[in-house]
Amino acid sequence: MQGIIYMQLKKFVVTTVGKDDWTQLLDKSGLESRLYLPTNTYPDEEFSTLLSAISKASDRSRSAILEEFGQFVVPELFALYGTFISPEWKTLDLIENTEQTIHKVVRLRNPGADPARLKTIRRTIDEIEVTYDSPRKMCSLAKGIIHGVAAHYEERVSIDESRCMLMGDNCCKLYVKKEVI
């Protein structure tokens, strides 16, 4: 996993809990001397270990933490990849084009990067079907990012999940619908 994600996780913990808590999480995870650099790649297991520590310390599920973290990282993602986002796009447009724009750029810039594979089908003007596939099985992070993108565009979406890798399916199937506000 890319160092930028670890740096955002640190920022998330420091912002939502406190600076000392990040240091304690590193200590409890056996990563006390670990420094994450944005362009480096780090083992997925370290991210999983940190998530478990955050979950235990906050008495919240990993899924809940991943969703909240997903929403949290959206401003940084827009800052990093905003030049690849068409100005006329809204939430569903961005989701529909993420794989061929942002994920393509991530893979080109960082050969070690392995963002989730997304396949989308635009069902209606207000609904998109997203097939999420990743060995990391972080569909909750994807859901958080989707909600964060909607908030960025001052929209609201609902997400229904008909299949989930965490429940033994080979992929996650998300139905994202724009809600009328």
Q: If you had to describe this structure to a student in words, what would you say it looks like?
A:
Helix 1 (3-16) packs across helix 2 (19-28), helix 1 crosses helix 4 and helix 4 crosses helix 7. This protein has two domains: 3-60; 68-179, Alpha-Beta Complex (H-NOX domain). A hairpin with a 2-residue loop joins strand 1 and strand 2 (127-133). It is built from seven helices and four strands. It is globular. It is an alpha+beta fold and 181 residues long. Strands 1-2-4-3 form a four-stranded antiparallel beta sheet, covered by helices on one side. Helices cover 50% and strands 17% of the residues.
Which helices and strands occur, and which strands form pairs?
Layout lengths: L2 H14 L2 H10 L15 H15 L3 H20 L9 H7 L1 H11 L7 E8 L2 E7 L5 H14 L3 E8 L8 E8 L2
Antiparallel strand pairs: 1-2, 2-4, 3-4
Helix pairs in contact: 1-2, 1-4, 4-7, 5-7
